[in-house]
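Just scan this pair:

***
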Amino acid sequence: MIDKDYASYDLMEQDISVVASPGIRPGLSRMAKCLKLLGNPQDKFKAVHVLGTNGKGSTASSLASILTASGLKTALYTSPHLIHMGERLRIDGFLVEQNKWQEAWEEVKSIIKDNFAAEDRPTAFELITAVCFLIMARENVDVAVVEAGMGGRLDATNLLGNVALSLFTTISLDHTSYLGTTPSQIAHEKFAVIRPGAKALYMGGPDDVEDVFIARCMKMVAEGHIFSRECVVRPRHLSLDGVVYDLWTSRGNCFCALETRLAGAYQTQNTALAAFGAVLLSENVFPSINRKSIRDGLLSARWPGRFEVIRLNGKTVILDGAHNPDGMKALAVSLKSALPAKEDVVILMAMMKDKDIEGALEKLEGLSIRKIICTQVPGLQRSKQAQELAIIVQEVFPRSIVAIEPELQRALDEATKDNGFIVICGSLYLIGAIKKIMGS
């Protein structure tokens, strides 16, 4: 459940922004210094490091749920948040109390002000990560499932000290200004986090990316596994209520009718990847993981904002943070699989300026889209202006009605006045803003 009283978290986030260096600044020296002054809290628990381009959050959430069901005190750290910063850290599925956040932040802030020049302070993401590592250590968690930010060797999360498993979802183009302009280049950055002698698991594909993964595992003498080569998944049922599938693994496991409430066709692969990660962790790392805890964990996993189905004013609304071509392709597949044949949909959309907007929109072309409402995320400079987005949308969808409504509440009212299914997508920032309006 999301805490509706998020004002205190907003104030803390503003305070962090004031103290932090602005923007994205790749490098580990600032974060390493900060953590050392805090007593290196990141070394005090085992961790699963989750990286990739799409599917990180739902995979991490599913695995964390399995670990909790296995009797392990489990922290889950993800980003970005949808409504308030407190969502980024959960322990055994529950949000951490705001006063614990505040206590940890005050300690981190004091260290930063006393030991860092203003121009060389950690970024906001680094500071939030440091706060969460400190809380995890103070709460004596058994294991932390930590989703990387941008991901790669210079990501703040790469300072985790006791990584039992590096888990990689799909690898595709994203953050090209920092990670590289080809999947292979990005893969080199992402796979650089694989730890010597530890376990590593990659979703798989394409061949050149798999080659990078294998080479890195060999260099680090790591136990490497490629999900697509070692596992077989057979979907059984897909609906707006979730997915059911069978899973066979190279370790001799046969899971019939695994079920998750996470909807969307892509959740078959994401949750199966989490299940196989749990199987690997059950070998010599967390022996309490078993078949029952894997089943129970997948069934209890929740991940808002990713093919999340809600009812609003008698209408079915699907919230999905898809924001790049791969994410939009997955959304389109899920809609085709879960909705009645030839069902018209209304799309409410906002996208960020730095994304491949045209490439993402093209992945939706096979859908029966009656109307697309272009809006923008209030107060966010990265958000593409609704009028500018509409020009691109109209070029890709010349036969669909394209409406422009920069004001988000009016855009939502416009979307929900029509009959049929409503899809809200294009950015997790948009999903968060919509949830605030809805009072989630």
Summary: The longest helix spans residues 98-115. DSSP finds 16 helices and 17 strands in the chain.
